[in-house]
């Protein structure tokens, strides 16, 4: 089935933001922020496998080991986002031009990403604030982006459209990551020290995000909708309170959100912490870590499309449950992975890529079937508070285990709980009842 012009424009926002998520949020900023914090703590001569045991003061009062700093920052940014994104959703639903919210929030996040170029020496505090701004802006833009899916695709199209968006995102993220891999690998030949190479790569992700956001911003501008005078002049806080009341009428939607909270936090934390795990626990060089993530991106592109085909045949719920089982196996294998074995790391990266895009793309389309028409952005703000880049329970657990055990292996295996609990809760979701309760048409396969 051919995509409509609006669907093709919509796909490009995945291309735009995935470069930031892949290059900055997933691969570079965690280890680089730890490096800056190590400098501030005086731990500049660590041997491979060693961790800095001198804490830095997060927010001026919280002692945190440098190795746990990125996880705690991610948790803080999510707590902030979880509250503020609800208001973004309420406001976006009151707007006749949601593409303006998409573009505005994306460009604020891209500006924060570009500003990461100025991180150097021991200036980890600026990195903390830029991570928080970038995470919130990404979440705000994606609340609007996800809600537009309901307007451009019918019930039988959403698995396909959502999967294609994710696939294009992995293509874009993988392309920029390949370029940045070359910059970091050949930094000396380019006349750059290692720190400057990372800073240029961080800048490139922000510029990429800003530039390609123009395509969906312009392509979706013809999707204005009529908003009632009552809604336009209404109080966003009152509307938000009303959404909480409405949500209680949809128990299957609430059950899905609870399941998603657990298994997606596991997914997001594995993605977020994988570069730290590979470099800090397995002793991999940064070039090897980048190569692994590049392979993951390539496999994820095809994985998202493959999962979309499986969903068309077996239903999205069954396909996602199968993906959760594979994620659980990834955590167990990762825990047992020997240090220094690059081939094994590549194999694990390929397994992650196979399920990464598919489980997330299908979760988005499943949820779109469970929300009432007219309140898409509000309901997706609940979803986004637990979606990629804003997970908090998993990163908190990972950071706490490392803080007290000083072991990335134990921190990783602790994430198995999230997949077990999330998978169990997802089996309890009755999709047929949830779709009909929300007043939506049943797709052919669900």
TrEMBL record:
Membrane-protein topology: Multi-pass membrane protein
Major facilitator superfamily (MFS) profile domain sequence ranges: 252-446
Protein name per UniProt: UMF1 family MFS transporter
Subcellular locations according to the entry: Cell membrane
PANTHER family membership: AUTOPHAGY-RELATED PROTEIN 22
Keyword terms: Membrane, Transmembrane, Transmembrane helix, Transport
Domain of life: Bacteria
Source organism phylogeny: Bacteria, Bacillati, Actinomycetota, Actinomycetes, Propionibacteriales
Annotated GO CC locations: plasma membrane
Pfam families the record matches: ATG22
